[in-house]
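User: Let's play a game. I give you a shape written as tokens, and you guess the letters that built it. Ready? Here's round one.
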């Protein structure tokens, strides 16, 4: 088993924010209830020029965790409702990571 980063981009019209967030929270609760789900961050675009208004980045214990979750009937029902937001999920592994050291005085 290998860890995985889920990156899922969504095209959400501004007048659909409330519906999208309701469905996203349902999916998030389901994912967290299944175990193997380390963290998630839902990002919202700061300006109107972004194609994807929302991008979810989640860390999973294993690729198998994601495969198990997305094949469940509960997730399928939520995914069907979210189809209007044209989700674009993919699993990734970190290739390169940099952290900038803090410049604040100790």
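Assistant: Ready! My guess for every position:
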């Amino acid at each position: 088993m290998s860890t995985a980063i889920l990156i899922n981009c969504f095209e959400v019209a501004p007048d659909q924010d409330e519906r999208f967030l309701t469905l996203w929270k349902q999916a998030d609760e389901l994912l967290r209830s299944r175990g193997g789900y380390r963290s998630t961050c839902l990002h919202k675009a700061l300006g109107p020029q972004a194609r994807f208004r929302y991008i979810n980045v989640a860390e999973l214990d294993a690729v198998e965790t994601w495969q198990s979750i997305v094949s469940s009937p509960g997730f399928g029902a939520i995914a069907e409702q979210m189809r209007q937001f044209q989700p674009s999920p993919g699993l990734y592994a970190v290739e390169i990571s940099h952290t900038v050291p803090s410049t604040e005085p100790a």
